[in-house]
Amino acid sequence: MDSKPIITLLFLISATVIAAQEYVRPPPRKALHFPWSRKHSSHPQQVHISLAGDKHMRVTWITNDKSAPSIVEYGTLSAKYSSVAQGESTSYSYLLYRSGKIHHTVIGPLEHGTVYFYQCGGQGPEFQFKTPPAQFPITFAVAGDLGQTEWTKSTLDHIDQCKYDVHLLPGDLSYADYMQSRWDTFGELVQPLASARPWMVTQGNHEKENIPLLKDGFASYNSRWKMPCEESGSSSNLYYSFEVAGVHAIMLGSYTDYDEYSDQYRWLKADLSKVDRQKTPWLVVLFHVPWYNSNKAHQGEGDSMMAAMEPLLYAASVDIVLAGHVHAYERTKRVNGGKSDTCGAVHITIGDGGNREGLAHKYINPSPEWSVFREASFGHGELKIVNSTHAFWTWHRNDDDEPVRSDQVWITSLLSSGCVAEKRHELRSILVGP
Q1: Which of 60, 168, 223, 378 is the most exposed place for a label (fewest CB within 10 A)?
Q2: Which residues form the Purple acid phosphatase N-terminal domain (predicted)?
Q3: What 3 state SS string does 1-34 have?
């Protein structure tokens, strides 16, 4: 009997099975439409919260009433506020646009793992949030390059189903791109989530909004999304750090100076010198432009920052680096200097939150030896730091149910693997050097 027909049949069956298992990306979705709704001028809008130092939270909101007070009343019982805090306010102009009054009020001290109810400016709806835990486990939701499309809404809906404590956003928030009203619609879009859990963000290229000779960059971003720069000894809102439940997180700026003579570089050295790995065994870094990227989009854009700062992060034994910018997902092995290194950081690109520019479909083939998983699909990540030695990372496609994990990996901390002790002398030499 001739075996050729049988071989051909087996090949066709195999090809059919493979084709059936291959993930097929759905078509793009439209931008969201935000119908105009009239609100009282002193009604709090675009409410969001962020960590502001040990046991403190910054509450940010906007009112159209320039005389509205920057006070927050809060407590552990609904509608029965035991404390009140006075904050500050700012506003900005951008060509013909005039922002509302932007309020920033720090409240605390707060208890860990506790639900608080609060009201902004003495009127409007009551909001509530839960403070992060004091100890492990802690879960971070991670999504960059959000924008305001139907894919964004899908990403936010998925994150809303996730039991997380803090949201990390590695740049490109609203995609306003000079249209300042889009900052307002973005604030309203994310309010349900951002008013209930702290959002810790850093800037991307779509936050620049620089007009030469007319407008400096990041005016909108810095006015609306104030992060704990002062609390972490930084002179710029574009880079800062914070600590939460055994994690030291560093947010860096891809679009401000980062060479060895820059303020950011000097601040980073000073910040790393203060890290106590016994207190915070996990060291996580976020910035916008990825250093390890096998997608054809944005190739090489992070090379100069990587050349300047990777030796610092490597000496400090950074565990995980999260970036955005490339509209796709990719996870690496532990890497350093362009190749696998068991004492390097795991790099994760997660710029697939739902932006209007669409996905970056084209990859370099064959894939680099350090690339473990890559896919051009919208989604979000969840980083659960279980204890001082282990973390569980998962990535979830928007097109799947939230419980479905499209990629997952257990990550062992560099402290437990001995890398921190091994590089202690190297770190000390770099930190005290010129």
Answers
A1: 223
A2: 44-131
A3: CCCHHHHHHHHHHHHHHHHHHCCCCCCCCCECCC
- Paired tokens of 69: 């007070």
What tens digit of pLDDT does each residue of 91-127 get? 999 999 999 999 999 999 999 999 999 999 999 999 9
- Cβ–Cβ contacts within 10 Å for residue 355, how many? 23
Query: Is there a single domain that holds both residue 124 and residue 145?
Result: no
147 Rama sector, left if φ>0, alpha if ψ -120 to 50, beta otherwise: left
Residues 110 and 142 in one domain: no
For residues 142 and 350, the answer to whether their CB atoms sit within 8 Å is yes
| CATH code, 116 | 2.60.40.380
Q: Give the position of tokens 């016994």.
A: 278
Which is catalytic among the residues 56, 298, 361, 390?
A: 298
Tokens of 211: 């007009």
Share of the chain above pLDDT 70, in %: 92
Structure tokens given for 102: 């932007």
Instruction: Identify the band that residue 270 occupies on the pLDDT scale cut at 50, 70 and 90.
Output: very high
298: annotated active-site residue: yes
Task: Report residue 275: phi and psi, to 5°.
Answer: -70, 130
Determine the number of helices (DSSP H) and then strands (DSSP E) in the chain. Answer: 9, 24
Whether residue 333 is found in the same domain as residue 283: yes
| Structural domain total, the chain | 2
Q: What is the rounded distance in angstroms from the CA atom of residue 339 to the CA atom of residue 371?
A: 10
pLDDT (0 to 100) of residue 94: 94
Instruction: Give Cβ neighbours of residue 57 (< 8 Å, ≥ 6 apart).
Output: 49, 50, 51, 106, 107, 108, 110, 129, 131, 198
Question: Locate tokens 């190297």: which residue?
Answer: 426
Same domain for 156 and 116, yes or no, is no
And the tokens for 196?
């209930």
Please state, in angstroms and rounded to a whole number, the distance separating the CA atoms of residues 311 and 336: 8
Q: Which secondary-structure segment (H or E) carries 93?
A: strand 93-94
CA distance 71 to 268: 33
Pair (92, 221) in one structural domain: no
Enclosing domain of residue 87: 45-129
* Residue 106 backbone dihedrals phi, psi, to 5 degrees: -90, 130
pLDDT at 250: 98
Residue 42, both tokens:
């002193």
Query: What single DSSP character describes residue 356?
Result: T
**Tally of CA atoms within 13 A in the half-sphere of 62 that contains its CB:** 22
114 shares its domain with 225? no
